[in-house]
C-alpha cells in the first residue's frame, strides 16, 4: 500500500498521530486526487461496516467500475 493510502487509512481510523497541519495536507491531497477520493469512500464504508453503523439502505453502485474492468480485460 502506498504511503498516501496508509496515511489516509490511519486518519479515517482515528489512528493518525500526525499534527493538524499534516492532517490538513492529507485532506487537501484527497480534494485533488481521484484515487484518494475513492479510497476515502471505501475506507469510510469499511469502517462503518466494521462498527455496524451502516444505514439500512446503501447506494453502492459498482457497475461503472465493473464495466471498466471488463473493457480492460484482454480478448481471448
Assign a percent range to the helix content: 55-70%
**Regions with pLDDT < 50 over 5+ consecutive residues?**
none
Number of helices: 4
Radius of gyration: 15 Å
Q: Please, what is the oligomeric state?
A: single chain
Distance between the termini: 31 Å
Describe it:
With 76 residues, this protein is mainly alpha-helical. The chain has four helices and no strands. The relative contact order is 0.11.
List the helices and strands and how they pair.
Layout: H1 3-13, H2 20-32, H3 34-50, H4 63-72
List keywords for this structure.
mainly alpha
Brief write-up:
With about 80 residues, the protein is mostly helical. Helices cover about 65% and strands about 0% of the residues. The model has no long low-confidence stretch (mean pLDDT about 85).
